[in-house]
Specification:
The chain is mostly helical. Helix content is 66%, strand content 4%. The radius of gyration is 23 Å and the shape is globular.
Length: 488
């Protein structure tokens, strides 16, 4: 569930801009500060960037900063890959995350990891606006701005070390993190600002081209940035975090407009309904007061304050589900499905209501039919497995999970589901193996190692390949733990 808490995402963004590479590892349980040598030492490989980004994301997730919602993540991935498919990004890995923060912000981490705050998505009015932000962040990755920023800031070693320590160690206490940021960032920002401006201009240039190539209005980036800046002035509110980290000068805005005006977008037929539905989903999940969410959606539907009626009705149905008004929610979903029977968003909600009301056979029928339409779909599989586990159909749940977990980019919760299925089948070794993967992706390598060791101890007759595979995973987990002799 989304909560309107404010995370230190501005600090995480600073990692992406200032960077901690080469010998740098970020861990949830221990912290290895950067080994800051001379500029000749700063040769950052893509593999090192990816490992750093993965470590940061695990830490953000461990602190509750990542919203692991299958529908939202799937939408962001599809939108992101639509943009990426029109770039020359080589073998660069990309992964998109929804960040549990109402502040307007987005950031790119080394290794192709891009976070979008839910507050920023709610501030966008169209898919092309959201695409423009994502294209800008993708450009930071494709142009390797992180490695370049790290090398440009090589003379800031002690400040970077203090700042990174504050980010990680202050994660559980926002005041600690904010105070450390204020104390250390001031001396480094001015020395970085010209380089950062160059990065931002290049990301604008490449991002606008990306929008046009993907079929979006290339003017969307300047339009969204300009609207955010104008709204901040009109209402006298503090400047959104996104504009502080992506400052829009008059010259930069003019450059963006000039660049966009010289491009033509390709004719495409995008399903912008998906954007409206995901935005409504976020609005329903982000409410602190579930009953107020019902009231808000009800008023909007009554007075016509919406861009898309179906999306508003979907958000209303979700808010009713959150307050356990399942009968009302079900009527709305039946109406939506009558108009759009193959919409995954609606099918998942329908199956959930059936599961919540203990109509487990009906729920499984809904998901089975959905999988016939979309074979091996990860979103449908996620919710289908939930229903199977509730109905104690552990063998079927394990079969589905083992298939979907063969591919990368899965939510950690799927490994938790697998551990439940293995427990139901009395496979203790399988339980520990699944939990090991679950804890690793949550940023807890010590616990991951413990669980994998338990898996090996509880099933000592593993065949050679199983045992070798488990030993290899332990070795991977250990890479995330700082050796005690380090620095001696």
């Amino acid at each position: 569930m989304l909560k309107t808490k404010q995370l230190n995402v501005n600090l995480i963004l600073f990692i992406a801009l200032s960077l901690l590479f080469s010998h740098t590892n970020i861990h949830s349980e221990e912290l290895l500060l950067p080994d800051m040598g001379n500029s000749a030492d700063f040769s950052v490989s893509p593999a090192e960037e990816k490992r750093t980004g993965e470590a940061v994301i695990r830490n953000i997730r461990r602190g509750g900063g990542v919203v692991d919602d299958p529908l939202i993540e799937d939408y962001l991935d599809h939108l992101g890959f639509r943009l990426i498919s029109n770039t020359n990004h080589g073998d660069q890995h990309f992964k998109f995350f929804l960040i549990n923060d109402k502040i307007l912000n987005a950031f790119a981490l080394p290794g192709g990891f891009i976070g979008i705050n839910y507050g920023l998505i709610l501030a966008t009015e169209s898919e092309k606006e959201l695409a423009s932000v994502m294209a800008h962040e993708v450009a930071h990755i494709t142009q390797r701005h992180h490695a370049r920023a790290y090398e440009a800031g090589s003379n800031q070693g002690p400040i970077l070390a203090a700042l990174i320590a504050a980010i990680i160690l202050g994660g559980a206490n926002s005041q600690i993190g904010e105070a450390a940021f204020a104390a250390t960032a001031a001396g480094m920002m001015q020395s970085q600002i010209n380089f950062t401006r160059a990065n931002e201009k290049e990301a604008d240039y490449m991002g606008i081209q990306m929008l046009a190539n993907a079929g979006y209005d290339p003017m969307a980036m300047a339009t969204f940035f300009g609207r955010m800046e104008k709204e901040s002035r009109l209402y006298g509110s503090s400047t959104p975090e996104f504009l502080r980290s992506h400052p829009m000068s008059t010259n930069r805005m003019a450059d963006a407009i000039n660049r966009a005006s010289g491009l033509q977008k390709r004719k495409t037929n995008f399903d912008t309904q998906s954007f409206d539905l995901i935005r409504a989903r976020i609005r329903a999940l982000a409410h602190d007061d579930k009953n107020n969410a019902v009231i808000e959606f009800t008023k909007h539907l009554e007075n016509g304050r919406f861009q898309n009626r179906s999306a508003e009705e979907y958000g209303y149905a979700l808010s009713l589900m959150n307050t356990k008004q399942y009968a009302k929610a079900n009527k709305i979903l039946d109406k939506l499905l009558a108009k759009d029977p193959s919409r995954i968003t609606y099918l998942v909600a329908k199956g959930q209501i059936e599961s919540f009301t203990k109509k487990l056979k009906q729920s499984q029928t809904t998901y089975t039919k959905a999988l016939e339409l979309y074979p091996e779909n990860k979103v449908i599989t996620y919710y289908y497995v939930q229903s199977l586990l509730k109905n104690r159909q552990f063998s079927k749940a394990r079969e589905l999970l083992n298939n979907v977990l063969k591919t990368p980019g899965n939510l950690p919760q799927l490994y938790k589901f697998l551990s439940e299925a293995e427990a139901g089948l009395k496979n203790t070794s399988g339980v520990h193996h699944a939990l090991a993967e679950y804890y690793f992706f949550l940023g807890q390598p010590h616990e991951a190692i413990r669980q994998m060791q338990l898996a090996m101890q509880t099933h000592k007759k593993d065949d050679f390949y199983t045992r070798a595979g488990r030993e290899a995973r332990i070795a991977e987990y250990q890479k995330e733990i700082i050796p005690e002799e380090h620095g001696n």
